[in-house]
Design goal:
Elements: H1 3-7, E1 15-20, H2 27-39, E2 43-47, E3 65-68, H3 92-101, E4 109-113, H4 116-122, H5 127-135, E5 147-153, H6 160-170, E6 173-180, E7 183-191, E8 197-206, E9 213-217, H7 222-239, H8 248-256
Organism: Cuerna arida
GO molecular function, one term: tRNA binding
Pfam families: Elong_Iki1
């Protein structure tokens, strides 16, 4: 499963979750998904919870791109400004409900949230349910399946790894962004309808002049694979109430332990030795001697 297949719409995915952190930003991918969906004439709804929409560069102005929650949606500045419109005061949860009620039938609807972490922080009780309703909404006859694309900051996510695991399991496609030296790497994990998981690792970059993104499939280095294995083990340890592994001192003590008795198996040569007892009818004469002429 390649990143470009998701960007150009050749592979469908109901929920794309982009994982990023302070060290590896995923804003470039969000920007590219918006641009490609606008180009495909899909109805794009961008919920700018974290950043001003002007940061989404190279995204053409179009009638099929609508911005929401871009100005004081949490009413933090309402006392300082009086030029707010009623639409700007709609909170993200109400915006998502309104989008669901007014879906257009002639084209695909794509909902982009630039910070799922902030949505969880502001609305911890209903954020998961709202995203679940979007992803699992029944597709009525004549309508296309809508798509949800979210950027989640894994290092500042309320609830930590448990919250991340909930959204990760819900997502059809998980894009994990990280850096390997000076390279930007994305790991794509896509769940097909059959339940099979397809994974790819790609290097991605963007041309500053054209704004076009390019990708190149690569193989993980041994160091990154080792680190990923350690992260997976650490994730498993965090999900259980008991310790699965051993500390370094415990491993050292185990290796130095002298067992009181250790049974060793003797290897034989395969020769069969038979010792007759007193009850055996043993006749050393050749039974064929009387046949000699």
């Amino acid at each position: 499963m390649k990143l470009m297949h998701l960007l150009d719409g050749s592979v469908s995915s109901e929920f794309i979750l982009i994982h990023d952190s302070k060290e590896a930003k995923g804003g470039l991918l969000i920007n590219e998904f918006i641009k490609q969906n606008v180009r495909l004439q899909n109805n794009v709804h961008l919920l700018s919870l974290e950043k001003n929409p002007v940061i989404f560069k190279n995204v053409p102005k179009a009638s099929n791109l609508k911005h929401h929650c871009f100005s004081d949606y949490n009413k933090w500045l309402i006392s300082k400004r009086s030029d707010h419109s009623s639409e700007e005061h709609l909170n993200p949860i109400d915006v998502l409900k309104d989008i669901q009620k007014n879906l257009k039938t002639e084209s695909k609807t794509v909902i982009v949230i630039d910070s799922l972490s902030l949505l969880v922080l502001l609305y911890p009780d209903v954020s998961y349910k709202s995203i679940w309703n979007l992803v699992n909404q029944q597709v009525l006859p004549g309508r296309q399946q809508q798509q949800v694309i979210c950027l989640i900051h894994t290092d500042v996510l309320p609830g930590g790894k448990k919250t991340l695991k909930m959204f990760e399991q819900m997502a059809t496609t998980n894009l994990i962004v990280f850096h390997d030296k000076s390279k930007s790497i994305v790991t794509t994990s896509h769940r097909k309808a059959s339940g099979r998981i397809i994974q790819t690792v790609e290097e991605f970059s963007t041309d500053k002049a054209t704004g076009l993104i390019s990708t190149k499939e690569i193989e993980l280095t041994k160091e990154i694979k080792t680190q990923n294995d350690r992260d997976n083990i650490a994730s498993i340890n965090n999900d259980v109430t008991f310790k699965l592994g051993l500390e370094d001192e415990e491993k050292r003590a185990r290796s130095e332990l002298v067992l009181p008795y250790l049974k060793t198996a003797k290897t034989g040569s395969g020769e069969i030795v038979y010792e007759p007892d007193a009850n055996d009818d043993w006749d050393e004469e050749d039974p064929d001697d009387d046949l000699n002429i």
